[in-house]
Amino acid sequence: MNDHPDHPDHPDDPEIPLAPFPTALPASPFPPLEGEAAEPYLDDAVEEVRQDPPSDWIETADAHDLTTAQEPVNPLLALGRFAFPPGEPPDEEGVAARDRRWTSRIIVLATVFLLIFNAVSIQNWSRQQAPGWVTTTVRRMADVWAEQIAQLGADQPRQTVRDGYEAARDAEWAGRRRP
Fold this sequence. Notes:
The protein is mostly helical. The chain has helices at about 75-85, 90-115, 120-130, 135-150, 155-170. Keywords: Membrane, Transmembrane, Transmembrane helix.
């Protein structure tokens, strides 16, 4: 098969030189606008190129305001929006109720986290209270709870932090005077 551009099998092929690199640059496919000077090419004589007129610059233009590409629409999402349109935005009472639910969940999560990983604090607190039926009951329940948590190993992070604190406190620091 002949790859020459004049071959009848390739009538639309452009005129491409057979040399590995073109020796002359082709003319620009974009002619200069009215009143503009043409850009100088490497082979042309260098002449002074005018700056763009100030009217071409839009001071308030921001390139980030332009969209670059349309996102493809998933047909299932489009069907879902059609079948289940979004509801009305919540009013002030709805927003307040949502915020209360969120706050309640966070408080419950923090309480459970502390009950599991800081069970010794309940024991310490109950020992500091005045003796009574409630504090004795809380202390006994805290003792049992701390023993169960210790069997799971959930007290190890707290103990590691405590040991690190005590080691740093008892360390001899340069420039520190001991009482």
